[in-house]
Each structure stands twice: as C-alpha cells, then as structure tokens.
Amino acid sequence: MKILVAPDSFKGSLSSKEVLEAISEGIRRAIDAEIVGVPIADGGEGTVDALIFSSGGKVVEAEVVGPLGDTVKSFFGILNDGTAVIEMAASSGLSLVPDNMRNPLITTTYGVGQLIKEALDKGCRKFIIGLGGSATNDGGAGMIQALGVKLLDEDGKDIPYGGGNLYKLKKVDISSIDKRVYESIFIVASDVTNPLCGENGASAVYGPQKGATKEMVEILDDNLRHYASVVKETLGKDFSDVPGAGAAGGLGFSLMAFLNAKIRSGIDIVMEASNIDEKIKSCDIVITGEGNTDFQTAYGKAPAGIARIAKKYGKPVLILSGGLGKNYKDLYDVGVTSMFSIVDKPMTLQEAMINAKKLMSDRAEDIIRIFISGRNSK
C-alpha cells in the first residue's frame, strides 16, 4: 500500500513536518506501507518549510522589529533557484503577541520590510510572501517604511507605527525607496480575497481576532481608507478594492501598490512546487490534517485543495484535525472521505497542544487499522 501524508501545520503546536512525522509513525505501527511525505502550507505558517522541502534551499535567520516594535528573532527561506520565501507571521504574526497585549492600533509590519531588505542583500530578486497569521492592521505601512518610503505627517515627520496612526498621514514620499524592489518580482501567497475597507475589509473581518474592539474596528477602517486615498494621490493608482488588498491587515494592499505584487493562491503555489498532483495520482490513500477543521477549510485551506485533486483521481482522503468545528461536513462535498479529531478524551486546549504529537500518531494508527480491515473484508 502506498500512502501519501500531506498535512498542514497545527498552529502553536506542531509544524507541518512534525505532523508528517507523527502520522507516519502511527501508520508504521499498523502496516508496512510505502509512505510518501509532503509538508503542506497555504501561505501561512509552514510555507517556508514546505517550499524548502519540495524545492530545496536553506533557512536564513534574522533579527527584525516585531509587531510590538521590539526586536524579535525571525527567518526567511532561500530556495535553490534564489527565490526568497517570507512568512509575514515570522516577523509580524499574532503568535508573537501575548494575548493580553493584542492591539492592532499599534502593531506594525516593519519587520516584513526588513526581511525583504535582508533577502535583497543576499541577491534575491524573486519573492514569495505568505500573508497568513498577521497581528497587524497597518495596511503594510510599516513594511514600506522599512523599504525607505517616507510616510509623513503635516509637520513633515514620519508617522509612528501602527494602524491607529494612519490618520496622521499627509504625504507619501517614495524617492528614497530601495530601488532594488523595482528589479524584483513579488508573488503574494494568500487565499484571502477581502478588499481593504468596508464590511468585508481587513478591519471588520479580521480585526477582532487581533484584539480589536468594535470601536477599534471603526477607527482602523477609517484609517485604512485615509491611507489608501493618500497613496492614490502619490501613485495615481487605487488598489483598495482589488481582491486580496485586505489580506494580513491590508499588507496585500501595499504589496500591490508599491511593489507591483501579484496575488496567487497560497495552497496552489505549495502544491505545484511539491508536484502533489502526481503524488496523489499514484497513491492508494491520502492523509492530511490541520489544527482545526470547519466550513472555512473549504475556502483555500490546504486539506481542501488536496481533497479536490484526490476527488479527480478517485482517491480516499482522510483528515486528522485538532478539532472538528462548525459545518465541517461541508468538506464531504469537495472530496474528503472522512474526518477525525485526534483528541481521545475531554481535555483543555493546552493539554491537546502539549500532547499533539502522541495524539496524532495514535489516531493515525487507529484509522489505518480501520482502513486495512475494510479493504481486507472485501
């Protein structure tokens, strides 16, 4: 039997590679099978690892300004062909902000710009930038400041970090931008299609999970609208309503407006690099997984992308998840055969995260034993 194991990461608990190892361990306890492993990501956490695994390359460590303005340890990847892979969450992610300090009025994407500069210094001129897991709502203002763009208030001074300060912006000066960005190609890995502003915009849809109150959401939305209008005056272009402009608190907007970035499906980028189509076609069963599975999984998440391909070839797809949430059964319509929570008894989220590797391995063994039994009974 040939089994393809292609999981996403379990945020805050296991990387996609660690999930892959745990599932493989459980399978081996149940059957002597050929296991093909492919870590998967959708542009968020794990994208660097997934692309390096499939394409070859290295991880480069860096110290940058974190979402709260302090120094954090970060990283990016350089693939064998010289492409830089950056996860915005590695410098400006929600995981870098303690729960009691989450406030998108003050968080910044400055570190993302610093990672881009580090990669430029190493000769990279093609970039894949994943936008998942952001703690920010500054429209990408911090990123472009790090790249040399001046965002000036009425006194000609740089505006402070954070989406809460964008209302102070009076002038955008691009004369000092790092000119190397104009020699470069930027691809945004994201499946978010939200515009920058409005009821479906960055602030309204994603602000609350970053710590925004109802009042903050209104302020942030107004500020992003103001930011976009001043940028339009300078560049003569308006990207605020382009699908994906609202990704990562508006970082998608600045990537398109200042760096001419093109947005592509994150899961498509990773799956193409891994040649996942052929791997699915040649296997007997596919096992994938993610931290939480619900109706949102069907919209651009890794397990759904895998299931759609598997459905084309008539291959069974099993999902191992940290939890099964609202309307998770919607995934049966996209090609998933069955879904399982790895939790085996009542426990807190913290307990589940601490024991995730063993829970994952045990559940993988259980479902493979069931699968083998079903095949043998035919």
From TrEMBL:
Superkingdom of origin: Bacteria
EC number of the protein: 2.7.1.31
Keywords: Kinase, Transferase
Gene3D superfamilies xrefs: Glycerate kinase, domain 1 (3.40.50.10350), Glycerate kinase, domain 2 (3.90.1510.10)
Top EC category: transferase
GO molecular function: glycerate kinase activity
InterPro entries the record matches: Glyc_kinase_flavodox-like_fold, Glycerate_kinase, Glycerate_kinase_RE-like, Glycerate_kinase_sf
GO annotation, biological process: organic acid phosphorylation
Family: Belongs to the glycerate kinase type-1 family.
Classification via PANTHER family: GLYCERATE KINASE
Name by which UniProt lists this protein: Glycerate kinase
